[in-house]
Amino acid sequence: EVQLVESGGDLVKPGGALRLSCTASGLTVTNAWMNWVRQAPGKGLEWVGHIRTKIDGGTTDYAAPVKGRFTISRDDSKNTLWLQMNSLKSEDTAVYYCTALLPPQGPRWGQGTLVTVSS
Amino acid sequence: DIVMTQSPDSLAVSLGERATINCESSQSVLYSSNNKNYLAWYQQKPGQPPKLLIYWASTRESGVPDRFSGSGSGTDFTLVISSLQAEDVALYYCQQYYSIPVTFGGGTKVEIK
Lengths: 119, 113
What we know:
The structure holds 2 protein chains of 2 kinds. Chain A is an all-beta fold. Chain A is built from no helices and 11 strands. In chain A, β4 and β5 form a beta hairpin. Classes of the chains: A mainly beta, B mainly beta.
């Protein structure tokens, strides 16, 4: 059974930084299509970024609002996905979810971790 | 980016009646090499993460009641709750995972009439 567990969410001041982690079991993050998705309070679901599988080059893509501030990486030895968030803004306040797709299964989601950016 | 348009925004259905939610993608999410539609449906209740109901447009996730069904192909998809139960009151989202960025519909709120 696939499980994704996010952690690292916290209250941080505007301009601050935070690193989220997503530890996987039941799949290898190297081989799955891994994404970060967020949901601001009372809002819908917003894609944050993605890291390709190792076979596909391991490159990353980001949504425009976070490009240049957020970085996705993987630690294969720990089977963990990271989201480094710098220069945080109030509009980054959200629950951040780690998601994985490894066909033929459907998408798998973690429980999420709350990031609050406020002074 | 593929735009996902859900309709209606909300609907109120009597207990035991049928609820139908539609989702249209701005381009096809059918991958020709495996004939799979990269389309998922989620249910979300307040304070909870999205719960996967349907993937590949019509495959029910393990443990999901069979009153939930998904259909459609290409650009037009439907989620049906065949007999609405009180515990089905929630927000429902469609998602395409055919291409990056993955994108979501705006959500449909299902309530009891």
